[in-house]
Write a structure and sequence with these properties.
Pfam families: Peptidase_M61 (PF05299). InterPro entries: Peptidase_M4/M1_CTD_sf, Peptidase_M61_catalytic. This protein is an alpha+beta fold. It folds into two domains: 152 residues, no CATH class; 172 residues, Neutral Protease, domain 2, CATH 1.10.390. The chain has twelve helices and ten strands. The strands form two sheets. It has an eight-stranded mixed β-sheet with strand order 1-7-8-6-5-4-3-2, covered by helices on one side. Helix 1 packs across helix 3 and helix 3 packs across helix 4. The longest helix is centred in the C-terminal third of the chain and has 22 residues.
């Protein structure tokens, strides 16, 4: 088993290091109830449920009995929303079967999901630790859930190039929130810009390659540069794909093709990039990879925003209303792979 964990503050939260892994309870399907046009719930025995997408892929949901009943209802609504957001990349979930576990934890209401972790197992599992009294609406507005489920868009082995996997999740956490209606277009671009700015500000190891900073991150830090350099990689790749195809093909399509060939596999980053290059019939992903992992500081990003009609004024994004760049920018708000 391999796993990755993400925190709002990024370094490990000492108070949670000793928490046991959630217990995966037995799931036995006994009934079905249609909730939305895209999903249906079934209620197994014990304390778990199963959610299906339109393609009958299954999400096993295990919400701890330690939550009060009303909290369980709120968390169920949030998970339904979160699962729906993931289908807005290419129409279905990345795996035929996957799981979400939710356990209660104490903490500040300002940080309702202080800990989350993706376990790469036979059935990929996302574990969330959530405050007991939190509402579905509050959880929907937290980036953490979108970040964690976005990890599943890559058939990643779970270790190696952290910047690559965390970069994809950091990039898509913003796209998913906008596509599902939690963020406005301007808010989405502002959050993406703010992330890049944090990566640039994390300059303690400027002069060292991203590969080296990635390797020593858990001992020495550099989380912001690692995560947001990775997000820059996927943002730059997405812009390039859209420009080459006049908006007909994007990173959404490339990930869909990757999922079609390799969803059940556990690939290294080199293998993932080889598949992405093959699916697009070019070497853009591998060439960009060489550039980013050898970079010695956060890559420049103002020119990327400019290509989409986004001006930066005193750290705030300003969206140009008209023109080809503005039209291309708005295309990011929906998938080209649906």
């Amino acid at each position: 088993m391999t796993s990755s964990s993400c925190l709002r503050a990024w370094p490990l939260w000492p108070a949670l290091k000793s928490l046991p892994s959630p217990v995966i309870r037995s799931l036995t399907l006994i009934a079905a109830l249609v909730l939305t046009p895209a999903f249906s719930w079934t209620t197994p025995a014990a304390n778990a449920t199963v959610l299906f997408d339109e393609g009958k892929r299954a999400l096993e949901v295990d919400i701890s009995e330690l939550f009060p009943e009303q909290s369980r209802v709120q968390i169920s609504r949030w998970i339904e929303h979160l699962a729906h957001s993931l289908t807005l990349v290419y129409g279905h979930w990345p795996r035929e079967r996957w799981a979400i576990d939710v356990e209660p934890v104490s903490g500040s209401i300002d940080d309702p999901i202080p800990w989350a972790q993706v376990h790469r197992e036979k059935i990929d599992r996302v574990a969330f630790y959530v405050l007991s009294s939190v509402s579905a609406d509050t959880l929907k507005h937290e980036w953490t859930g979108y970040h964690e489920v976005a990890h599943l868009l890559l058939p990643y082995r779970g270790w190696g190039d952290t910047w690559f996997s965390e970069g994809l999740a950091s990039y898509y956490q913003n796209l998913l929130q906008a596509r599902v209606g939690v963020l406005s277009e301007e808010q989405m671009w502002q959050k993406l810009y703010d992330g890049f700015a944090r990566g640039k500000a994390d300059d303690r190891f400027d002069g060292q390659t991203l590969l080296l900073v990635n390797q020593q991150m858990r001992e020495k830090g550099g989380y912001m540069r690692v995560y947001w350099s990775g997000a820059w990689y996927f943002f730059a790749a997405d812009i390039s794909l859209r420009a080459q195809s006049n908006g007909a093909y994007s990173l959404d399509n490339a990930l869909k093709q990757l999922n079609s060939c390799c969803a059940a596999q556990s690939l290294s980053v080199a293998e993932i990039i080889a598949h992405l290059d093959a699916s697009t019939d070019q070497k853009m992903f591998s060439e960009l990879y060489q550039r980013v992992y050898q970079s010695r500081k956060m890559p420049p990003y103002a020119s990327l925003f400019a290509q989409l009609g986004i001006e930066i004024k005193n750290g705030q994004v300003s969206l140009v209303a008209d023109g080809a760049n503005a039209r291309r920018r708005r295309e990011f708000l929906s998938s080209t792979a649906l």
